[in-house]
Design goal:
This protein is an all-alpha fold. The chain has helices at residues 18-47, 50-56, 69-75, 79-110, 117-129, 134-143, 151-154, 161-172, 176-184, 189-200, 202-218, 221-226, 235-244, 262-298.
Length: 299
């Protein structure tokens, strides 16, 4: 009696052949190495002693010992420390303002009693396809007196049409019976938004807040356009000057007065610019798929 081969279906398909599984493992390993090796090199170089960095020609994959002199020099005060604080302030205030404005607009667009709701929605969608342009935006920022101020880094980009549309789709799929019951009990629109809609939308708000925070943290072009005062530069613009443009970090730029090798300082600045997002993302990861996909698919 011959044995019949039985396949356990995976997503409705038979399992791959051993050769295909090996090929997938090799491709996956190469892709991971392409991502991890540069990151490991950046962290290792920032922690390596000066003699090892000089002997290796600038890039170290495994430090012989841990040397925190680059981080001490950067965080002791000076340009980088000030830029780090400015980036933190812009990110926190910008994300909070953007979430507030986007939530209020998205909720308003879900209310059928709002006059001109369809026209506002179409106007919002059209803004996705037509950009105002760099020069008109600069003139508007100048007209409102926001040049050389942190407001220029926050206000012009505080509202994203894409994020509002995602939030609107999420709000539209909330149980309307709960909202109607609250209205019967005398709740106003702000009460509905603050006590019912927002608590039920934590997943979407976490994802949209992460989008806004990453955008503010990584933004440097707005600072390049609107800020002539170098004391207001965010971390990403300092990073662009010292790493991309290759400007040297002098002792005058740091309060410690100690200048480790330039490559070590550059890698340390890169690590400092990456770490905050890496620390925040794990706390929001469980909301990410639910918040992004629910608003996108059901909308």
């Amino acid at each position: 009696m011959s044995r019949q081969r039985r396949y356990r279906l995976v997503n409705g398909q038979p399992p791959s052949s051993p050769q295909m599984r090996v090929l997938k493992a090799v491709v996956f390993t190469i892709a991971c190495a392409l991502v991890l090796v540069p990151f490991v090199g950046i962290v290792a170089t920032s922690l390596a002693p000066a003699a090892q960095v000089t002997a290796a020609g600038g890039l170290v994959l495994w430090p012989s010992s841990i040397d925190l002199s680059a981080y001490r020099a950067i965080l002791a005060g000076g340009v980088v420390t000030r830029a780090l604080g400015i980036s933190g302030i812009v990110t926190i205030l910008g994300a909070a303002l953007s979430l507030t404005v986007s939530s209020m607009l998205a909720y308003a667009l879900t209310r059928r009693a709002l006059p001109g709701r369809r026209a506002l929605t179409m106007l919002l969608i059209c803004s996705l396809f037509f950009s105002p342009g760099m020069i008109p935006t600069y003139l508007v920022v100048k007209q409102f007196g926001m040049l050389d101020s942190l407001a220029a880094l926050i206000v012009p980009t505080c509202l994203s049409a894409f994020n509002v549309i995602v939030l609107r789709a999420f709000f539209s799929n909330l149980p309307q019976d709960v909202l109607e019951a609250a209205q019967i009990d005398g709740a106003g629109e702000f009460s509905l938004l603050g006590r019912i809609v927002l608590p039920l939308s934590k997943a979407a708000l976490a994802v949209i807040g992460l989008f806004y925070a990453v955008g503010y943290w990584n933004s440097f072009f707005a600072a390049l356009l609107y800020l002539n005062d170098t004391s207001l530069w965010p971390l990403q613009l300092v990073l662009r000057s010292y790493v991309t443009n290759g400007e040297r970090i002098a002792a005058a730029d740091m309060d410690s007065g100690i200048v480790p090798p330039q490559v070590t300082l550059q890698m340390a600045i890169l690590v400092i610019s990456i770490v905050p997002i890496l620390c925040v993302y794990p706390f929001l990861q469980r909301h990410f798929a639910k918040g992004a996909l629910t608003g996108a698919i059901k909308g």
